[in-house]
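Let's practice the habit of predicting before peeking. Look at the sequence and jot down your guess about where helices and strands might fall. Then scroll down.
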Amino acid sequence: MSNYTKLVNFSVKDTLDSGNPQKVVQGSEIDTEYDNIQLAIETKADANNAQLDGSPVTDTAAPLTATRRLATTQYVMLQNGVTTADLTTLITTTQSTATTALTTLITTAQTAATTAGTTADNAVERAGDTMAGDLAFGSNAVTFNSKATGSGFKIIEETAAGVTKLFFEYNGTKVAMLDSTGAFTVKGDVTAFGTIA
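Done guessing? Here is the structure:
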């Protein structure tokens, strides 16, 4: 945005004597004046639907002013009882809260990653791995399948009438039972001192 400043004082030329070269109005002088006028007009805001660029500044109206004049950011702050110190505190608090939240998020993610890594390290492979320590089973059965036929033994624990029994099944048929009293029952023959192949 620029203001128009006249470069040539044309009225002075009227006071000069004839023959004075300064009395002559030159086309270049007129052209320069018109260029300056055009530039000033093009860079000024229109009275209607003006679009202001940069950071335009105006005076601040008194609180409770009810006119059509533009309200500055300062007026809005004062009208709502907000001071610069309040904004500074709000910004500082917001930054602190965001930093704390981000730090907590990062820490939580790191902890989760560490826990996942530890769980993976302590996991047992489905085949070929070795387990250490005691192995506890709940109410589920333990099944041992043959690689060749898919059939095999199953160990099932059941409790009835206060007595816990451990059944050994083979292909769905119970072939032996061990109860909590120590009694061991088999469906077939029991061979003593036999050969185990």
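How did you do? The chain is about 35% helix and 15% strand.
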